[in-house]
Amino acid sequence: MKILGIESSCDETAAAVVEERGDAARPWQARSNVIASQVAIHRAWGGVVPELASRQHLRDICGVAERALEDGRVGWRDIDALAVTQGPGLVGSLLVGLSFAKSAAASLGVPLVPVHHLAGHIESLVLEHGELPYPASVLVVSGGHTSLYFVPEPGRYHLVGRTRDDAAGEAYDKVAKLLGLGYPGGPIIDRLATQGNEHAIAFPVARLTHRDRNPAPEVLLPEGFEKALQYRTDFSFSGLKTAVMRYVKSRDAGPGARSAFSDHEIADICASFQRVVIEALLNRTFDAARWYNARSIGIAGGVSANSRLRAVATARGEQVGLPVFVPSLKLATDNAAMIAAAGLRRFHQGVTAPLSLNAHANLSL
Ligand code: KG4
Ligand code: ZN
Fold first, then answer.
1. Which residue segments constitute the domains of the chain, with CATH numbers given?
2. Average pLDDT of each block of 10 consecutive residues along the chain (365 residues)?
3. Residues enclosing ligand 1, CB less than 6 A?
4. What pTM was estimated for this model as a whole?
5. Residue 335 gets which letter from DSSP?
């Protein structure tokens, strides 16, 4: 079976052809993975402008899909189903991909499979590495999300923690903007931090526990795992962002403060900020693995491209005897191959959608 995946939830227009390999341990293979990035358009604004994003998706979607077929050496008639990101995301952007996928499914007379964007990020790990040793503790960390899932078996996802405020990638982007480093901030801070001392500045690590008064989302865990909920922790990154802002102000430097600091100091700020983010992300992911007796750790989403996060996660995994899986860079940031893979998973779970399917900006998983 070959499925065409379409992704347009934020600022990347993407299409990919993924096929089944007939091997349960390594179920899928990407024949193509085409991404038209809008980064150059949004860079001028220091962040994604939703209206510009949806207009650009409209311009790009047809060409990107044609290219995905061409790269995959298939024609429209070889496509057995369409998978599309239904949400969460920017609603105008989602609607472009959704309308395209619905039209294609209707004209080909093939099923339409709705996919949750974060299920796509989780399945990027399986597309890359084959089925993980389950149960798995999987962190999805990107510009829009920081969510921790307990995955007891293939295709079942239980949310066990999520950010109460900023996503980790958002914190990277905001801190980079504050320091006048450019957009998107993640890759820039990743690079500059390699030159800095990560213990130079003691930025605070936020810790939210079950004792916190803030209400947490309802979580349905498999039988026997309810007890672990009492340990559940969420993430928070807005305090860290404020701490960096205060530090910058304490030096009488305003936003875009690049010139108030030496290159050396900027590298120290980046490294110290990054150390706190990585510690917060990995402490919870490894704690959850311990509480749920996970047999593996997965880290997916744009921030999983971070070189230091990958290195520290792998080292911690080796210490506790847990394999750590991350996607390759092309599958870490938003792409449609992961949506197609998750679509195949859902299709075999019996999920298809009518053509009345609507986009859902806050879809939950
Ligand atoms: O998954 P993604 O492409 O889009 C969303 O669904 O949000 O993630 C984009 C985010 C941005 O915030 C970007 O700064 C961050 O991923 N990012 C990184 C790195 N590469 C991308 N963050 C830290 N280190 C990186 N190397
Ligand atoms: Zn994403």
1. 2-121+333-348 (3.30.420.40), 134-322 (3.30.420.40)
2. 97 96 96 93 86 93 98 98 97 98 98 98 98 97 93 92 92 94 94 97 77 53 59 82 91 69 95 97 92 94 97 98 97 97 98 96 90
3. 10, 142-144, 169, 172-173, 184-187, 190, 301-303, 305-306, 333-334
4. 0.93
5. -
